[in-house]
Amino acid sequence: MGTHHSLEMLFDAAQQEQRCAAPRTDTDIKAVSRRVHAGTIQRVYRGLYARKQYWDALNPHERVRHIVRSLALQHPNWIFCGPTAAIMYGLDCSYRFLLPICIVAKPGVHVRNTPQLAHYAMAYPETTAIGGVTVTAPLRTLFDCATRLPLRFSLAILDSALRKQIVEQPTLAAYPHTVKYARNRQAALRAFSLADARSENGGESEARGVLTEIGYPVHDLQITFPCLTHPSRNHRVDFLWVREDGTKVAGEFDGVRKYVDPDMTSRQDIRAVVMQEREREHCLEQQKVDVVRMFYDELNRPNQLAAKLEAKRVPHV
Asked: What's the burial of 265, exposed, middle or buried (CB within 10 Å: 0-12/13-18/19+)?
């Protein structure tokens, strides 16, 4: 396949601007089609393309940002909102909400949602620009995520907004009452009241959301206990519950990352990491703190998770 200079320039410019390429001329469209067939170029959204090798190297959130920057060029009047805006802010949005791309629609105007594009009815949303892309203002973005997504997923977005200091807690708490017309306001009030900057990552936030929904809301998080073996060390637990008799249960949330990510394991092998975890658990138990360990895949099996918590006498609402 010969080189096609205008096409190479098109893809080079797109990559430089961190967006997708949108071929316009018949010649370019035909050349792109041949390369898609050959497997060197990938169609990533309707009318948008990227070099396969380049696209494969991007993480899923960055891929969404590339698509959004391209759509913003094609549709300068579009306002991106909901999970799409959350991704543009760099918040912890679950991969389940990468698509559809969410944009604002005028109330009362009939628009068809597709698996690729969803419309949120809003009259006059506050907006801001991120690198030339118009998105709903942070608080409005968080509110829309809280009213439309299950608590498990909206909480991850809210926690990360506080952690990244995109919004502040008092402003966050007051906001749901200021939105005039809103469906599902109760869901927003609940999510906004639970948001906590101390949550360290999206997985922990999702776990807190699920724990709340199954009746085991966390009493506190990121609490430290002294290490009895090494006085200079502390043990920090992800979640903490205090039973009526004053005894405590620590919840440890394990994404598998703890065992496979070299940054998390200080490059030790898995056996050493598991051994350390056991020692830490034993140390906590000596301080009358029971430990319940939770895994990410258990969040999809809430009944099983509830049975595990009940067995450990975790306080239930």
From this structure: middle
The pLDDT of residue 259 is 37
Residues of the chain predicted below pLDDT 50? 1-2, 257-262, 264-265
3 state DSSP class of 235: strand
Domain with CATH 3.40.960 in the chain: 204-311
pLDDT of 1 reads 46
* pTM metric for this prediction: 0.89
Where does 204-311 sit in CATH, by number?
A: 3.40.960
Neighbours of 254 (CB within 10 A): 16
Distance between CA atoms of residues 125 and 146, nearest Å: 16
* C-alpha dihedral (281, 283, 289, 293), degrees to nearest 10: -10
Q: Strands 41-45 and 248-254: what pairing?
A: unpaired
Cα 62 versus chain centre, distance: 13
Q: Looking at residue 267, what is its pLDDT? A: 53
CB-based burial label for 259 (10 Å; 0-12, 13-18, 19+): middle
Q: How many Å from the N-terminal Cα to the C-terminal Cα in the chain? A: 66
Closest CA to 197 of 227, 175, 166: 166
